[in-house]
Amino acid sequence: MVLTENVCSRLNRQFYTLGMSDPKVESPRGHDELRPEAIRLEDLRVFLAVAQSGSFRSAANQMFTSQPTMSRSIARLEGQLGVPLLERGPRGVQLTTHGEVLLSAARRVLTAMADLRRVVSTPGSRTLRLGATATSARTILAPFLSRWIPDNPDIHVTAIEDSERRLHSRLENGDCDVAIVSSPVSPSLDSLHITTVQVIALFPPEHRLAGVDGPVSVLDLADERLLVNGESFPSTGLLMRALDAAGIHGNVVYECSAGQTLAAIAEAGLGVAVFGDTADLRGFALRRHQLLDASGRPLSFDLYAAWIRDGVPSDIRNFAVELATSFRPPTGRAAAAPSPSMGPDPSS
Questions:
Q1: Of 106, 135, 318, 330, which sits with the fewest C-beta atoms within 10 Å of its C-beta?
Q2: How many domains does the chain have?
Q3: At 155, which CATH number?
Q4: pTM over 0.70
């Protein structure tokens, strides 16, 4: 147990010196052996993701980075702590005894840092920071907050709009307390399912496919100009991968994060708009069709209310639960259970 106790001791001392990576800064008495580099919070996040997913590949996907980058972070941690943390085998990655100790300690450190950011950024007040894409902010957050804020007048709400790709990392970095994110959800987060989003294609009434009865296939879009959200959005990732699998080069002519803007451009006749069906399309003269891949499977992804797994205040957890359970799909859109169908690839 001597080495394991040393891991705890070193981690505690490293936590004391986090952020003091300037070699010109003199270490406190008893901490000289920690120079020249202190443990990085990002390395702890990487370790946590690998440990909880059991796979470098899965963890890399969840953190939107590469496997070599993950491996370098783990190697740096093992070098700084002086002990092996992970064992690689045919069934994936297993924690060593020292890794088990670090797993618990890393969770405490990351939770403490998230709490520190929250306390320092909002002294003397209660602020709830919510992360969402522009579409989720309008279609999910706005209706919910219109009811929730009047019942909670002592809490100031701040909205952080960002892309799907960045919301996961902003949540893990402590930039927001609750975020609406798509699957797969990082193992460092707790989450509740909000809704399953169907990817749809929208055509002006005069378009050749507007009168089709039922869903349309990506095969039907081979010669179409495409209007999409952007590569960091799940709907676009699903579309482009389905086109690639069918041997079709997608002709994307316009990208915009707002579904309503894409709908307006499609209505003007520039092309076919493709995005998730949570957008409010009232007032548009468009024909909407569910989009299928070449084998006939619906393109869809799941949205979750997510928050840091360990150490969050109960009011944050309660807010996320209420948000997830109170959502009602827009008129004309059926609710759906979570589906693994072609789940979004974070690298797209």
A1: 318
A2: 3
A3: 3.40.190.10
A4: no
